[in-house]
Amino acid sequence: MCDIYWEIYEMGIPVVLGPALLAKALGCPTRCECDVVIHRDDLERVGSRDCVWTIEDPSFIHRHIWVGGYPHISLEDMAKIKGPSDVVECLLSRL
Q1: Residue 32 in contact with residue 50, Cβ under 8 Å?
Q2: What residues have CB less than 8 Å from 69, skipping those under 6 apart?
Q3: Going along 29-89, which residue ranges are E strands?
Q4: Which residues contact 36 (CB under 8 A, 6 or more apart)?
Q5: Which of 2, 27, 65, 92 has the least CB density, counted as fewest CB within 10 Å?
C-alpha cells in the first residue's frame, strides 16, 4: 500500500497516513500518491522527505480515523499539519 508509512512505522515512530487520499477523492491537488504525518520532533529521525507532513501536537496519533484499514490524519488535525498549504486549503474548503 504505502511503503513510506511502513518504513516509518517500523522505525517505531508514531505515524498516520496524510491527506493525499482525501485530496484525490475531493479533486484537490496532491503531489503524492501516498503521504504520511509525523510529529515535528521525529523529523530528524526520518529526514526531510517528500510526502512527509509534520504536526506540532503529539496527541494527533490518538485522534486518527480508519480508512481502508489504515490510520489517517483526523479532520480535526488536518488544519494543523505543516506541508504544501494548497492541499490543506483545498480540503478544508470542500469539507
Answers
A1: yes
A2: none
A3: 36-39, 52-55, 65-67, 70-72
A4: 2, 4, 5, 8, 15, 16, 17, 18, 51, 52, 53
A5: 27
